[in-house]
């Protein structure tokens, strides 16, 4: 995102709409400016229509900066799936996709949200730590498409410094390995310069209990049991 200095009147209204605080007003020039290294190309400032003189405009993006828009702008269509956003079916559609089988846990690690954003050098650290467990990263996830080697979690060198609003590392793991995965995440958390949250899902047992809940409790990991189901827009439920 750029700001036309000839139009800008320095009102600062646009600064309130930047989720990563990449916009500031120069006190001497009395003009707003965008820190392009911090900007994630989410488009929130432009879509807010808060600028009274239409000074904000989107520049033409080229690789690897296009990565920022793909993973930060919810209106951008991901080529992996042809739908807006990060483009995965997500855990809440499991009733119709059957991505996560019984005996497995689905794990999604979202780096960067809220507020801080994430650079891919940190996403790579997490992915590498998870790859040691032999996981298969979700193919229908734009984050996975940026990996040079999905078996090791190595990302393409030219995207490592790119910053996005958030990126999700997503995979399935046998339930018996879930504790090891979470302990590994605890260790790598000290090496990343952003925040991340961890989502875990598993198929309910016949009695309604949640298989991974006992694992989380034994490991003394704080967790909140949330249920969100997407009925799949009329698609039939997957059979067990």
Task: Work out the helix count.
Answer: 7
Terminal-residue CA separation: 47 Å
Strand content: 15-25%
**Low-confidence parts:** none
What CATH first level of the largest domain would be assigned? Alpha Beta
Instruction: Please state how the strands of the largest beta sheet are arranged side by side.
Output: 12-7-13
Task: Return the structural class.
Answer: alpha+beta
Q: Secondary-structure element sequence?
A: EEEHEHEEHEEHHEEEEHEH
Would you identify the CATH architecture of the largest domain?
2-Layer Sandwich
Total discrete domains: 2
Explain what you see.
With 240 residues, this protein is α+β, with helices and mostly antiparallel strands. It has two domains: 2-57, 2-Layer Sandwich (Alpha-Beta Plaits), CATH 3.30.70.20; 75-218, 2-Layer Sandwich (Alpha-Beta Plaits), CATH 3.30.70. 21% of the residues lie in helices and 20% in strands. It is built from seven helices and 13 strands. The strands form six sheets. A three-stranded antiparallel beta sheet has the order 12-7-13. The protein has a two-stranded antiparallel ribbon with strand order 1-4. The protein has a two-stranded antiparallel ribbon with strand order 2-3. Strand 5 (77-78) and strand 6 (83-84) form a beta hairpin. The longest helix is centred in the middle third of the chain and has 12 residues, at 120-131. It is elongated. The model has no long low-confidence stretch (mean pLDDT 89).
What is shown here, in short?
The chain has 240 residues and is of the alpha+beta class. The protein has seven helices and 13 strands. It has two domains: 2-57, Alpha-Beta Plaits (2-Layer Sandwich), CATH 3.30.70.20; 75-218, Alpha-Beta Plaits, CATH 3.30.70.
């Amino acid at each position: 995102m750029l700001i036309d200095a000839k139009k800008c009147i320095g009102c600062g209204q646009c600064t309130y709409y930047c989720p990563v605080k990449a916009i500031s007003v120069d006190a001497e020039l009395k003009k707003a400016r965008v820190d392009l290294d911090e900007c994630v190309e989410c488009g929130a400032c432009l879509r807010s229509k808060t600028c009274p003189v239409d000074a904000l405009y989107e520049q033409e993006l080229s690789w690897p900066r296009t990565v920022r828009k793909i993973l930060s702008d919810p209106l951008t269509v991901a080529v992996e799936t042809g739908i807006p956003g990060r483009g995965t079916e997500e855990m809440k559609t499991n009733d119709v996709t059957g991505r996560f089988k019984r005996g497995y846990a689905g794990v999604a690690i979202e780096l960067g949200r809220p507020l801080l954003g994430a650079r891919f050098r940190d996403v790579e650290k997490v992915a590498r730590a998870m790859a040691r467990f032999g996981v298969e990263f979700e193919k229908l996830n734009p984050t996975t498409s940026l990996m040079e080697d999905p078996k090791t979690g190595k990302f393409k060198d030219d995207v490592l410094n790119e910053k996005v609003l958030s990126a999700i590392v997503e995979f399935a793991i046998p339930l018996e390995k879930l504790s090891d995965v979470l302990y590994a995440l605890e260790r790598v958390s000290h090496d990343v310069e952003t925040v991340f949250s961890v989502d875990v899902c598993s198929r309910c047992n016949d009695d309604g209990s949640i298989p991974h809940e006992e694992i989380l409790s034994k490991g003394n990991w704080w967790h909140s049991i949330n249920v969100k189901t997407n009925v799949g827009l009329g698609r039939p439920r997957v059979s067990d």
